[in-house]
Design brief:
- This protein is α+β, with helices and mostly antiparallel strands and 64 residues long.
- The chain has one domain: Alpha-Beta Plaits (2-Layer Sandwich), CATH 3.30.70.
- Helices cover 23% and strands 22% of the residues.
- The chain contains 2 helices and 4 strands, in the order βαββαβ.
- A hairpin with a 6-residue loop joins strand 2 and strand 3.
- The longest helix has 10 residues.
- The protein is globular.
- The termini are close together.
Length: 64
């Protein structure tokens, strides 16, 4: 799984953090998404997919 972030699209909604807190976080200064684990374990794959799906700005791209 490859995870790509587009910070120009990120609107700091934080949905990714709610769905996959082990993989995503937000920067304190502006709330933009931060990738905590670029190579998450397989147990997190579904959470990562869900985080990408619920992102209102489509800032997270997942490639299998």
């Amino acid at each position: 799984m490859k995870i790509s972030l587009d910070l120009d699209k990120c609107c700091a909604a934080g949905q990714c953090v709610l769905v996959a807190p082990e993989v995503f976080d937000q920067r304190d200064e502006d709330g933009l998404v931060v990738l905590l684990d670029a190579d998450p374990p397989k147990e997190q794959y579904e959470n990562v997919r869900q985080a990408a799906a619920v992102c209102p700005a489509a800032a997270i791209e997942v490639q299998e």
